[in-house]
Design goal:
Layout (H helix, E strand, L loop, with lengths): L13 H11 L4 H14 L5 H13 L1 H9 L11 H12 L1
Amino acid sequence: MSSSLSDTPPVLSDRVRRLIYQASYTGMKETDLLLGHFAKSYLADLSDDDLTDFENLLAAGDHWIYVWVTGNEEVPDAYNTPVFKLIKKFKDSN
């Protein structure tokens, strides 16, 4: 059986692999599931600036991410980035 190039998974950078791991183990099961699935689905296609926004969001802490994503608290401007909006859209579609 021959294998085509489209059958091979994308090669992930060390940065993306690290962020997928971090997103999957934030410390709170709800955010682990949301961010882990989001990271596996989207991070490989994000720009370096978007990856930086994602890193900054992870640094804010899982408690804050959870209350922002659920809409229980207003998202500070520093974290209300296109990446956060993509996470929120991802959450709402699942």
